[in-house]
Amino acid sequence: MSDPREISGLSNAELQQLVLNLLAEIAELKGIVAAQRDEIARLKGLKGRPDIKPSGMEQGTTAKVRDKRASRRGRGKLTPRVTIEEQILPAAAPHGSRFKGYQDFVAQELVLRVRAIRYRRERWVTPDGCTVVAALPPGVCSHFGSELRRFVLMQYHQGQVTVPRLVALLRAIGVSISQRQVMRLLIDGQDQFLGEARAVLRAGLETACWITVDDTGARHQARNGFCTQIGNDHFAWFGTTYSKSRLNFLALLRAGHADYVVNDAALTYMRKRALAGPVMARLAEHQDKQFADAADWQAHLERLGIAQLRVTPDPMQIATEGALWGSVQSHGFVRDAVIVSDDAGQFAVGRHALCWVHAERLVHKLDTFTDAQRRAQERVRSLIWQFYADLKVYRTNPTLRRRSQLRARFDRIFCRRTGFVRLDRLLTRLHANKTELLTVLDHPNIPLHTNTSENDLRCQVTKRKISGGTRSDIGRDCRDAFLGLAKTCAKLRIAFWDYLGSRLAVPGYADVPPLPDLIRCRGQPA
SS3 sequence, 71-96? Predict the structure, then answer.
């Protein structure tokens, strides 16, 4: 209202509506202020406001087991993973007693002791004057054996033990070691693990029918960055960079490749992003289609005159995104896979689906001021929960009839008008994402949420809290690689301890097949 004096002429109902509108505007302003406060706190390195508790839609729409005895989870039979040694314990029986066999009792024990071995390596001089020295046993590196190296990697990456505490623990056991030596054991000579982590990502992107993606904050070299997670039920991979743009995500999807490709997939991407026709014609008609790295691609754009264009949308950015997507497709990654995300713009590439839990959370976090608004909010949340439960049932038994019914029901839920202005705007916004929210109807095998990614990222968040950031690029890469390998082993039901024992050639441990081969076997259709 332009003139405050006009308020006196309003009726009671109009005054109430005016107050509600003002309260809604105040809530929006509070949200802007809170976001600005969080940004200031992030720049200062302070903690932001706590997150609101999850709505519980996934658990609330899961059928409960009625029989309490059937749902009660027992401990199960104790089965040690090691060979059981037998030791007979004599009993002090009186004279004349009869022997009745044995009563077994299995106890697990841990032996921690330090062994210092002096390897006396034979040296020979050949007739031609060369010196031949006996080779060290497999796994011995930097004056430390494979068992010690495995223990250090296990404690630091999976046990989330800090370096100072790890040094104190090793010294308490009796190991003569310094903090610098522990750091060398963690980051030096890990090319084998870095290569396998990259191969895990490539195998996952080649065979996956769906992947979930998410990111979280990460510190590197005293700067704020972002750790991106890519994975599904068979693998997990982490990559830390300083950007969370779509260019960065597409570069990560190349899985270590550095090329740029202009092919049909790239041109289709550019066309969907509304790249101008003449610009696309220059790229399509030029004989050069593949470029080794970013420098070659940049030079190509400058030769074509695309880098000098100053229009909206930015043709250089869209062309680069398209060439990155063309590279991803040319290497056979995520060709038929669905990318499920939380509606962050950088993940909207290829076949894209949205997380229902994040969509419902927007309704859950909406500020209400009257009983009518609260009733409207609870009514909409109830309808979304029921719809979500029916989507979970549809995934187990998809039919064409049920698909059309769910599409029509989606329109009835998100096109409704409740009288609560902010809720109605939110429903309109969610209805605009109908295609991505209902991707599950055409691909029933994909998940309805990104809980897998959020669970995987917890290890990165824990590492960030207890250890801060990384200082060197190799330290950052080792952290991401080992945490990803540990998560992948857990999904493949392989003990990370056994995996490290196999890769470090610990005597007496069975060979663990390459994780990429296992992922490809799991990813093949039954």
Answer: HCCCCCCCCCCCCCCCCCCCCCCCCC
Residue 38 is predicted with a pLDDT of 76
**What Å distances lie between residue 157 and 239, 361, 462, 484, CA to CA?**
16, 32, 11, 10
Q: Is 334 left (phi over 0), alpha (psi -120 to 50) or beta?
A: left
Q: Which of 360, 364, 384, 383 is nearest to 374 (CA)?
A: 364
Distances in Å between the Cα of 436 and the Cα atoms of 79, 265, 432, 439, 462 are: 46, 20, 9, 5, 31
The alpha-carbon radius of gyration of the chain (Å, integer) is 30
H or E segment and range at residue 238 = strand 236-241
CB 260 within 8 A of CB 323: yes
For the chain, which residues score pLDDT lower than 70? Answer: 1-6, 44-55, 64-81, 524-526
Contact status, residue 270 vs residue 316, Cβ threshold 8 Å? no
HEC letters along 479-496: HHHHHHHHHHHHHCCCCH
Long-range contacts of 511-514 (CB under 8 A, 24+ apart): 514/196, 514/199
Q: Which residue has the tokens 């004096």?
A: 5
Task: Give the whole-angstrom CA distance, residue 346 versus residue 119.
Answer: 55
Percent of the chain with pLDDT over 90: 72
The amino acid at residue 386 is: Q
Please tell me the pTM assigned to this model.
0.84
CA distance 462 to 471: 17
pLDDT at 39: 74
| Residue 481 identity (one-letter amino acid) | A
144 vs 7, 134, 236, 448, CA distance in Å? Answer: 82, 17, 30, 47
| β-bridge partners, 393 | none
Q: Is the peptide bond before 54 cis (omega within 30 degrees of 0)?
A: no
Three-state secondary structure along 390-433? HHHHHHHCCCHHHHHHHHHHHHHHHCCCCCCHHHHHHHHHHHHC
Query: Rounded to an integer, what is the distance from CA 57 to the centroid of its chain?
Result: 21
Give Cβ neighbours of residue 431 (< 8 Å, ≥ 6 apart). 410, 411, 414, 415
CB 321 within 8 A of CB 269: yes
* Token pair 């002096």 in the structure block, residue: 118
Where does residue 411 fall: left (phi above 0), alpha (psi -120 to 50 degrees), or beta otherwise? alpha
The alpha helices in 208-263, defined as continuous H runs, are 246-253
Amino acid identity of residue 205, one-letter, is L
Q: Are strands 351-354 and 338-341 parallel, antiparallel or unpaired?
A: parallel
The amino acid at 121: R
What pLDDT is recorded for position 113?
87
Nearest alpha carbon to residue 508 among 30, 163, 138: 138
Strands 290-291 and 260-261, bridge-based pairing:
antiparallel
505 closest CA partner among 116, 144, 150: 150
**pLDDT tens-digit series, residues 43-88:** 766 655 555 566 678 877 877 666 555 555 555 565 666 788 899 9
**How many residues in the chain?**
526
